[in-house]
Hints:
11 strands, mainly beta
Amino acid sequence: VQLVESGGGLVQPGGSLRLSCAASGFTFSKYVMSWHRQAPGKERQQVALIRVAGRDRYYSDSVKGRFTISRDDAKDTVYLQMNSLRPEDTAVYYCKATGETTYWGQGTQVTVSS
């Protein structure tokens, strides 16, 4: 089983990034997918969640209106489109699969700085 995040990097405030999380080794379409982030010295927090077949989506207040979560079950991939990025969005971003079992990716660093 693998969850592999990509798309992180350094971006200026106000910029955009698109994170991807490619899954393998389990039935992706049956799992709720979510993105979480952890800044230095802080607890990991959920920022976005998408249910099976994209029937429902949830966003934390801190990213609502700026981030969009989506999934492509044909590609076993979940995405996080991040717009209007702020320095406080700087963190390691992780994807998580929740179903019969819970899986985590290894994380990708996002740094928002001028």
